[in-house]
């Protein structure tokens, strides 16, 4: 039984992605039999090239994607280099997780509330400081260079990269390396960059590529924050795909292929830069410069990290405040009144998307958890860990742009009459939940002291009994944390919900994004806040439940 | 071949109308009970969403129909979905039961034979509709509805202004250009295909084009250039004076009115003459906001609901369409406290009790009287809108 799970997991995963990619590639070259249309192979590309604003759309995609990934990476590495020796740094893992759980759309909406010309920051400093009696005319959201989108992407991705570096640090002997480099006279930052980073870099390569792919192909954050005449490429593709003129699906498919190529090229470029930096870095390392105390760098990283944290927190605070606000006219710094009236009025509207979000998230998380646990248990009984190639396969849904294969998947679902079914919705979420659950759980599972198992086996327990009675209870906390991460990923899914749900399933995410196009800020805030709050509750539960369950078992509370 | 098709269509039409019987409707209601109707409707305005939700509770009570609002950012999404289903050969059990629709989306669905019906004659409340006084309830953007869509509301294009900052509103399209130049950055319109943005472009076109009659016919390429040349010249002159110099556009009508509330612009656009009053009452616009129309009249139209050919819950959808035409639903919709959208019913012909519902409605401080609203200008043929949107994107989306 158990040995069927890994191939089954891969099939569940790669089959539809491959089919979906094929379903995108065929129309990109003029073949779309389902719709009874056939064009010459070059026609879709001609349509794409002739589309108004394509150059700008592509530029927006490239600048926001590459710049945000570079900034997140720099900030995450900078923070680690600057503060790895601080006591609080070790506890960062627990603090960062909830921040990571904030769905993209909620953060984007909150960030827009914060930085818009009529946003909270402008309200706080106007008119007494700025003289802006009316909101300033310059663009801070939907700005022509997509800087707002770039910033928000950076805010969202930095905690993820930071967490991934922290996880990688557990697998390299960083303490010993740092001790040696210190005795050799290296400054703390230089020492970390020279001795630890090269080892960590290999481990965070895939997460970095995932960040890059997401930044280049995201739709929900771009809808909220990017300009829209024209929008970035991924949003433009979605528009074409929804055009009542079905012929527009051809340039949409060609554009999706183009976006996949862009992501592949960007990943290649990053790999190239990494190799180049590695080569140059070796000379820098061998050069032997010790570096000073690094106060300047530490200050820069501290200011950057603090600013990012503050912007994220205030974005969420802005959501909360708007959801409670009565009349709040520009340039008042605070609402004239505070109350629950918007929540009361939206209660009924909120209920259905809330339950949909909840059951879809729970179902996808539970299935992912079962599959991942079975895979990990199988791997332990076989004594063979997932290969590097296997890891790539697992990362595939995170590396291929969602629009690249969801188009094809939707056609498949329509043909199979599965579109708009609960199964399709849960499966489409599973695709993205599974990799994260695996990433979160693999290390703690493998790190479990093998002596527990051996002891139990010696006492006559079967492998199954060991799994249920020994491993699961001990690993309860990491399992719940992995589940909370999986649930948060499911909550934040936008495109998969649209495509697999055929519009029938509204989640807090789809509601928040569609409302963000112009509905009352209070209502948008209610939905976005609920969207952000749900994963947070998941994390709270994941932290509190083991503490409560094991309140009489001091030994079990320490693990995880 | 073509003649055969037309004859078949005529036959279908004739039999469709021919079979109206009184107990037909009770049959329909019996089948409707217990059905779930997925109503695909634009959801960019939460007051309308709240109204739709109220309809849901009422049709549940009245007909035992469960209503689900599938929230669209653009009606074209639903059209595209039905089209995809039709092409994939799904002729029944489709995912869309009811669509809020008009204009080019209706034209596309009618042309593609993607609509169920004719069904409006079967709705008992349809006879309350003022088809004589409001001819657009039967002709949607010059396209005859042929009973394939049921009227829901009357819309007329109006401008909102903040009288704290606008003293003398421009009363014509050329005057609007002068006003914008005198007040740079204080006016903006949503980019098409947002329907408020597209309607604004049509409003300008109707006023600027040399021969209005041509707009009532399908667009032809030769005529298009001549008819729209003044529009592009006017837009070229207007854009530098717009909010953000026309480099960015408000996302939607509701986004624009939020900007009016913020004071980021001095005017906003609306399709519902009662919307401004309603927003003032809710504290979403300053009390100083008023509405105005242009001296030459503004575009008016009717919006409808239609049922796709492959809808799963056709009877339930008809029950909902019928409820939407009830004096109860129409009066609530016209009330600015809820929505402020004009009724399609013939008030003079209503029984006294129902008439009283409408007479009790407070129009609100910023709502123009029917006399002040003036005559509604007819919508151009839908092909004009499609072509203008395309051409606009080519020119201004770079």
TrEMBL record, chain A:
Species this chain originates from: Oceanibaculum indicum P24
Family according to the record: Belongs to the binding-protein-dependent transport system permease family.
ABC transmembrane type-1 domain location: 54-271, 354-545
Protein name: Binding-protein-dependent transport system inner membrane protein
GO biological process: transmembrane transport
Matching PROSITE patterns: ABC_TM1
Protein localization: Cell membrane
Gene Ontology, cellular component aspect: plasma membrane
Residue ranges the record marks as coiled coil: none
InterPro entries: MetI-like, MetI-like_sf
Record keywords: Cell membrane, Membrane, Transmembrane, Transmembrane helix, Transport
From TrEMBL, chain B:
UniProt keywords, alphabetically: Signal
The keyword Chaperone belongs to this UniProt entry's keyword annotation: no
Annotated Pfam families: SBP_bac_8
The keyword Lyase is annotated on this UniProt entry: no
Signal peptide extent: 1-22
Protein name in UniProt: ABC transporter substrate-binding protein
The organism of origin for this protein: Oceanibaculum indicum P24
């Amino acid at each position: 039984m158990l040995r069927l799970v890994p191939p089954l997991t891969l099939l569940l995963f790669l089959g539809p992605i491959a089919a979906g990619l094929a379903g995108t590639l065929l129309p990109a070259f003029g073949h779309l039999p389902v719709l009874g249309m056939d064009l010459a192979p070059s026609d879709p590309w001609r349509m794409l090239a002739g589309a108004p604003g394509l150059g700008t759309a592509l530029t927006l995609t490239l600048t926001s994607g590459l710049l945000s990934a570079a900034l997140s990476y720099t900030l995450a590495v900078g923070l680690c280099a600057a503060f790895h020796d601080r006591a609080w740094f070790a506890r960062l893992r627990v603090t960062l997780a909830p921040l990571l759980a904030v769905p993209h759309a909620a953060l984007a909406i909150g960030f827009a509330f914060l930085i818009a010309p009529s946003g909270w920051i402008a309200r706080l400093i106007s008119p007494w400081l700025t003289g802006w009696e009316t909101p300033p005319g310059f663009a801070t959201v939907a700005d022509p260079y997509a800087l707002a989108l770039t910033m928000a992407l950076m805010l969202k991705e930095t905690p993820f990269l930071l967490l991934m570096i922290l996880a990688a640090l557990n697998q390299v002997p960083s303490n010993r390396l740092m001790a040696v480099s210190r005795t050799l006279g290296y400054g703390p930052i230089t020492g970390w960059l020279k001795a630890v980073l090269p080892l960590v870099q290999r481990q965070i390569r895939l997460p970095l590529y995932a960040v890059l792919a997401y930044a280049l192909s995201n739709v929900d954050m771009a809808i909220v924050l990017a300009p829209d005449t024209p929008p970035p490429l991924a949003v433009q593709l979605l528009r074409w795909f929804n055009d009542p003129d079905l012929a527009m699906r051809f340039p949409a498919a060609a554009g999706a292929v183009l976006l996949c190529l862009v992501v592949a090229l960007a990943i290649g470029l990053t790999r190239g830069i990494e190799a180049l930096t590695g080569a140059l870095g070796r000379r820098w390392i061998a050069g032997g410069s010790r570096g000073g105390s690094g106060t300047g760098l530490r200050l820069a990283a501290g200011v950057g990290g603090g600013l990012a944290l503050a912007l994220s927190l205030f974005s969420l605070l802005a959501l909360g405040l708007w959801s409670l606000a009565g009349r709040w006219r520009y340039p008042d710094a605070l609402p004239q009144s505070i109350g629950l009236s918007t929540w009361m009025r939206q209660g009924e509207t909120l209920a259905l998307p809330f339950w949909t979000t909840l059951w879809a998230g729970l179902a996808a998380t539970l299935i992912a958890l079962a599959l991942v646990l079975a895979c990990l248990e199988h791997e332990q009984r076989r004594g063979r860990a997932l290969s590097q190639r296997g890891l790539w396969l697992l990362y595939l849904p995170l590396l291929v742009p969602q629009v690249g294969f969801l188009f094809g998947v939707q056609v498949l679902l329509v043909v199979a009459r599965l579109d708009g079914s609960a199964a399709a919705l849960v499966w489409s979420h599973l695709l993205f939940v599974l990799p994260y659950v695996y990433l979160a759980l693999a290390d703690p599972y493998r790190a479990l002291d093998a002596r527990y198992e051996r002891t139990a086996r010696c006492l006559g327990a079967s492998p199954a009994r060991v799994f249920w009675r020994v491993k699961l209870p001990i690993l309860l906390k990491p399992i719940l944390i992995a589940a909370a991460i999986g649930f948060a990923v499911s909550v934040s899914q936008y495109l998969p919900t649209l495509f697999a749900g055929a519009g029938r399933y509204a989640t807090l995410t789809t509601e928040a994004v569609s409302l963000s196009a112009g509905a009352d800020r209070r209502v948008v805030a209610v939905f976005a806040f609920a969207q952000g709050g749900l994963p947070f509750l998941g994390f709270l539960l994941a932290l509190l439940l083991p503490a409560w369950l094991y309140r009489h078992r001091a030994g079990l509370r320490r693990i995880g | 071949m073509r003649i055969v098709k037309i004859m078949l269509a005529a036959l279908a039409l004739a039999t469709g109308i021919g079979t109206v019987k009184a107990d037909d409707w009770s049959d329909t209601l019996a089948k409707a009970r217990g059905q779930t109707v997925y109503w695909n409707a634009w959801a960019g305005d939460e007051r309308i969403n709240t109204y739709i939700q109220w309809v849901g509770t009422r049709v549940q009570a009245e007909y035992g129909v469960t209503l689900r609002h599938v929230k669209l950012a653009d009606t074209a999404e639903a059209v595209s979905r039905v089209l995809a289903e039709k092409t994939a050969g799904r002729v029944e059990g489709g995912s869309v039961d009811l669509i809020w629709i008009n204009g080019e989306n209706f034209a596309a669905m009618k042309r593609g034979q993607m609509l169920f019906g004719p069904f409006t004659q079967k709705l008992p409340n349809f006879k309350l509709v003022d088809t004589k006084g409001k001819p657009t309830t039967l002709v949607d953007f010059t396209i005859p509805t042929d009973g394939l869509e049921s009227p829901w509301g009357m819309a007329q294009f109006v401008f909102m202004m903040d009288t704290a900052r606008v003293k003398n509103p421009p009363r014509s399209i050329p005057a609007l250009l002068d006003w914008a130049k005198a007040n740079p950055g204080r006016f903006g319109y949503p980019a098409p295909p947002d329907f408020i943005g597209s309607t604004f472009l049509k409003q300008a076109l109707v006023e600027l084009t040399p021969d209005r009659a041509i707009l009532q016919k399908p667009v032809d390429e030769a005529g298009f250039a001549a008819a729209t040349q003044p529009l592009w010249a006017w837009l070229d002159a207007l854009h530098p004076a717009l909010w953000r110099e026309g480099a960015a556009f408000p996302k939607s009508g509701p986004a624009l009115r939020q900007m009016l509330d913020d004071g980021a612009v001095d005017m906003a656009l609306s399709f519902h003459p009662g919307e401004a009053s309603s927003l003032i009452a809710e504290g979403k616009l300053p009390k100083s906001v008023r509405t105005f129309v242009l001296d030459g009249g503004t575009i008016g139209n009717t919006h409808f609901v239609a049922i796709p050919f492959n809808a799963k819950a056709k009877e339930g959808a008809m029950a909902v369409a019928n409820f939407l035409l009830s004096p109860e639903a129409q009066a609530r919709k016209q009330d600015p406290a809820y929505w402020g959208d004009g009724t399609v019913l013939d008030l003079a012909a209503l029984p006294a009790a129902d008439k009283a519902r409408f007479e009790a409605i407070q129009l609100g401080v910023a709502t123009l009287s029917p006399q002040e609203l003036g005559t509604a200008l007819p919508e151009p043929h839908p092909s004009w809108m499609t072509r203008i949107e395309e051409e606009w994107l080519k020119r201004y989306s770079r």
